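Exercise (ungraded).
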Amino acid sequence: MNIAEAAKYTGLSSKTIRYYEQEKIIPPAKRGDNGYRQYDADQLALLVFIKRARDLGFSLSDSHELLLLSLDPERSSAVVKQKAVQHLNKVNDQIMQLQKMRDILEGVVGLCSGDSRAECPILDKLSGASQ
Amino acid sequence: MNIAEAAKYTGLSSKTIRYYEQEKIIPPAKRGDNGYRQYDADQLALLVFIKRARDLGFSLSDSHELLLLSLDPERSSAVVKQKAVQHLNKVNDQIMQLQKMRDILEGVVGLCSGDSRAECPILDKLSGASQ
DNA sequence: ATTTGACCTTACAGTGACTGTAACCCTTAC
DNA sequence: GTAAGGGTTACAGTCACTGTAAGGTCAAAT
């Protein structure tokens, strides 16, 4: 299986797969006689693992560590859970921060007439002395 | 007022202020006899404006455009509102995506024993054939 | 047989919004 | 005089890719 097909299967781009190999997130793919990368089911599974971890918002480096843990029969689930909880906390923080932004944005957007006049509560919010 | 004091006042870092000047987000600061940047109330107001826009999640380039609009008496609030609404939509999309991540993470974290055993539903979720 | 188009390869630059580091100059206090 | 703590520039690094260039390979159509 060539890289484009692997990309299609995993939902990654060919460039991203090459990038993961370069960054040693996954072991280097075997090459055909023509020098093309070849992917088998095992390699695909690694790529899918990374894809799913990334889709859950784990950093590439965390995704890599999780992959190593998944391949290590001596692992303890405590280590994995700790990473996941840490990440979950970060995600929750991000959500709360974005919700604060949204609340403020919704507030000022609701006040702005959005017509040809210059008067604008959105800009007032950004420049005003009264927050 | 030197750059460190301006940084303290605005909540930006000195490096960030220099970066904004370099990127022409704000006009270059006047310099003292020693070549140090000098900040007055007007410059500080520009910096605070950018800081607030960034805190609401606007990109630096959008923040710049909003600053120009705020200084333009010929502006129409419609243009500002459009930008804000667009941004609000992006923020809402981000929130929804993060909430999906959170729900999945909470689900698997709740299933994981987090002890010395290798068995781990978190890793199962990432590698498993059944999502 | 050739050409076209789609694939593959590497290498390097660019993205966004900074942050870190190095090397140097200036000011202030002791 | 010297040491700490400012300031200056310039350049590299971050993260996770994406874009671009320049070229090699393959399969099918002409």
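Further reading is listed at the end of the chapter. For now, observe: The longest strand of chain A covers residues 30-31. The longest helix of chain A spans residues 77-111.
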